[in-house]
């Protein structure tokens, strides 16, 4: 038997844990997630009881997401009142802040924004954020490194914001003209805000949106001019994050077709200089609900929901060099949904919360985590295992990757060289149950023969990956 051992330092896709169900109610939506300084994981979501009755619910985990506390009614509103868009922030003072929309009746006539604070033991009474406004809705929230909390909201076709500092809220301000909206904000090391939003404009023929980027300088309390990032109509949503050089990267959703049936897709661009952005990249089509996070190794990670027609998958895309790789976190075989991925990084791990419709009339909040962001030094052996078989090994012309599919799922098979550089993808499809195999003929993604040596075969099924080494020889 030929066995070869190698030690490789890798920073590409590792396992996503099997998803854990957080909520055990009936219609749980709009999750958000945060991790405090002690490593406690906090998740908040919106629970829909009826059209005019919705509550903000909260749960936490003290054991890395293995178990969760029973859902706690945070908004404590009664029948006829409803909540929307809960967001959660972790402060550097050990406190947790939850911001949410609240309306006393349906349809909305006087929506306001509230905040509640958890000190680790007790929750304070709700604090009215929009105290100086007639109303506000669709809140967004971010906290900087010094603990200042910014809350943004819409009112009268433009966005307002105020900030919470020294236990009081500032007076609300609208920094731009009408039809400028904000989707997400993040902060840099100097506590300046970097914002992704959209601008809506109308003509006699059509109404369209464009992606915007703008900043707030904390030291001067000034907002920048607005940059328009793209030239095509975009849909709601999108996200922004900063790389190690504090350059913004943005994802958004837009139409790929100009008429019905609409095909939506995810696009990505990054800032490469003052007011200069990279060429737009298409991440995938038939997708929605994008989120982006750049980890401590400066790897760009994008999370989205992909509709395959007969199934929907929550997918994780990550960029290695110039190549986008992907892995499934969860899949549902129905025409329902997996959506709203909320992602946070802590101590070299990614944590995600999302909602999943397992059947009609039911929606659960799910949680998973991955060690993808860490550099992993590990000994690999080319010897076979019970779950994954690669032979012949060594090989000269081709090798077969044999594996079993226990139930219908999405399978992704990638090849990497001995130092973790992406080489080729040899399977990226939904497979039926049973024993199956794929072949690799020793070529890269462009069809060119690779050098002889050790390669890593990675088989990912429903977010769980297995690896085997294979030796390509003369």
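Sequence proposed for the structure above (474 residues):
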């Amino acid at each position: 038997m030929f066995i070869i051992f190698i030690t490789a330092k890798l920073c590409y896709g590792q396992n996503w844990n099997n998803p854990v169900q957080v909520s055990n109610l009936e219609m749980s939506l709009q999750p958000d997630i945060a991790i405090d300084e002690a490593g406690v994981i906090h998740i908040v979501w919106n629970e829909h009881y009826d059209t005019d009755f919705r509550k903000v619910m909260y749960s936490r985990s003290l054991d890395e997401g293995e178990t969760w506390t029973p859902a706690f009614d945070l908004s404590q509103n009664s029948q006829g009142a409803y909540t929307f868009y809960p967001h959660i922030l972790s402060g550097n003072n050990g406190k947790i802040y939850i911001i949410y929309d609240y309306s006393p009746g349906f349809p909305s006539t006087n929506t306001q924004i509230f905040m509640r604070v958890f000190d680790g033991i007790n929750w304070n009474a709700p604090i009215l954020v929009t105290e100086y406004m007639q109303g506000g809705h669709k809140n967004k929230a971010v906290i900087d490194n010094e603990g200042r909390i910014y809350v943004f909201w819409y009112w009268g076709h433009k966005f307002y914001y105020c900030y919470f500092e020294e236990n009081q809220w500032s007076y609300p301000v609208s920094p731009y003209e009408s039809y400028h909206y904000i989707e997400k904000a993040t902060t840099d090391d100097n506590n300046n805000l970097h914002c992704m939003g959209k601008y809506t404009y109308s003509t006699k023929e059509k109404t369209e949106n464009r992606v915007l980027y703008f900043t707030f300088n904390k030291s001067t309390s000034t907002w920048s001019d607005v940059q328009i990032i793209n030239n095509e109509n975009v849909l709601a949503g999108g996200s922004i994050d900063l790389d190690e050089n504090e350059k913004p990267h943005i994802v958004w959703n837009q139409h790929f077709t100009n008429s019905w049936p609409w095909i939506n897709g995810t696009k990505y661009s990054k800032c490469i200089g003052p007011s200069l952005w990279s060429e737009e990249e298409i991440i995938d089509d038939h997708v929605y609900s994008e989120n982006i996070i750049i980890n401590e190794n400066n790897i760009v990670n994008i999370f989205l929901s992909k509709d395959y027609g007969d199934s929907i998958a929550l997918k994780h895309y990550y960029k290695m060099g110039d190549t986008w790789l992907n892995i499934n976190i969860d899949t549902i075989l129905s025409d329902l949904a997996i959506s709203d991925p909320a992602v946070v990084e802590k101590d070299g791990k990614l944590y995600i919360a999302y909602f999943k419709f397992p059947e009609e009339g039911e929606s659960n909040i799910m949680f998973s985590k991955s060690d993808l962001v860490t550099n992993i030094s590990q000994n690999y052996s080319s010897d076979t295992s019970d779950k994954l078989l690669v032979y012949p090994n060594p090989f000269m012309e081709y090798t077969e990757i044999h594996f079993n599919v226990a139930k219908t799922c999405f399978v992704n098979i990638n090849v990497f060289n001995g130092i973790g550089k992406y080489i080729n993808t040899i399977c990226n499809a939904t497979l039926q149950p049973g024993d199956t195999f794929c072949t690799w003929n020793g070529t890269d993604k462009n069809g060119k023969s690779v050098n002889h040596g050790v390669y890593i075969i990675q088989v990912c099924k429903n977010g769980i990956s297995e690896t085997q080494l294979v030796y390509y020889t003369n």
